[in-house]
Amino acid sequence: MSNLQIKNLHASINGEPILKGVNLEIDLGKVHALMGPNGSGKSTLANVLMGNPKYEITEGRIILDGKDITECSPDERAKLGVFLSFQYPAEITGVTLSNFLRTAYNAIHEKKKDVLQFHQHLKEKMKELQMDDLFSKRYLNEGFSGGEKKRSEILQMAVLNPKYAILDETDSGLDADAIRIVGENVNKMRGPQKGILIITHYYRILNYITPDQVSIMIDGKIVKTGGKELALEIEEQGFDNFIQQIEVSNAN
């Protein structure tokens, strides 16, 4: 089956357990939203799925289209079609966005593109996302506003065209207009051959991206999964009810 499966995943950093048995599936053609309060383990999950070596998987498996990638390196996962949009994208002076993307594209695709071919490919994607051509000539994230950094990440997703895209708090620090633009651009890339995991603390980006499923993470575990109505419940009541349920369960 074509999906990204997370099975009983436990992970820690510097010996501190963060993920405590996560079970989740991201199917092609679907958008799955992962919500939870700060410190619940959402960004840790994103980093572990991408193979960040700072995190240690102590139990469980990650299965990609039937292949166990639990021990795969980040570049191996990228070549297999996994993409992570960072919550806090790094700035790289001296490397233009265009050169960065061409290097990344050729690193993960068997069929390489020369400079002219890639320039045309990039131009088409920027046009689809209604981005100025001059944007590609700027140094990667240097001097970018919060909204520009997020749009840069969405452009990377469009150019690299991964099978599975993990968007880690893409709405963090954005104003209403920037969230709308990001949401509209993500919607343009939805399709039957792409699975998307949106990790967010707030409901607001889901005003523009309708998820097929919503999961709630509390204290390193998925405590409930449902439809968009679950996100609406969080918007109206917050995470307190779920936290109390976990506290009661632990007490028993």
CATH superfamily: P-loop containing nucleotide triphosphate hydrolases
Give the % helix: 25-40%
Sketch the topology as an H/E string, one letter per element.
EEEHEEHEEHHEHEHEEEHH
Count of discrete domains: 1
User: What is the third-level CATH name, the topology?
Assistant: Rossmann fold
Largest sheet, if any? 6 strands, mixed
Number of strands: 12
The CA-CA distance between the termini, in Å, is 38 Å
Can you tag this structure with a few keywords?
Rossmann fold; 6-stranded mixed β-sheet; 4-stranded antiparallel β-sheet; alpha/beta; 8 helices
Report on this model:
The chain has 252 residues and is of the alpha/beta class. It has a single domain, classed as Rossmann fold (3-Layer(aba) Sandwich), CATH 3.40.50.300. It contains eight helices and twelve strands. The chain has helices at residues 42-50, 74-79, 97-108, 115-128, 146-160, 176-188, 228-237, 240-251; strands at residues 3-13, 16-27, 31-35, 56-64, 67-68, 82-85, 92-96, 139-140, 164-168, 195-200, 213-218, 221-226. Strands 6-9-10-3-11-12 form a six-stranded mixed β-sheet, with helices on both faces. A four-stranded antiparallel β-sheet has the order 2-1-4-5, covered by helices on one side. Strands 7-8 form a two-stranded antiparallel sheet. Strand 1 and strand 2 form a beta hairpin. Helix 5 packs parallel to helix 6. The chain is globular, with a radius of gyration of 18 Å. The model has no long low-confidence stretch (mean pLDDT 89).
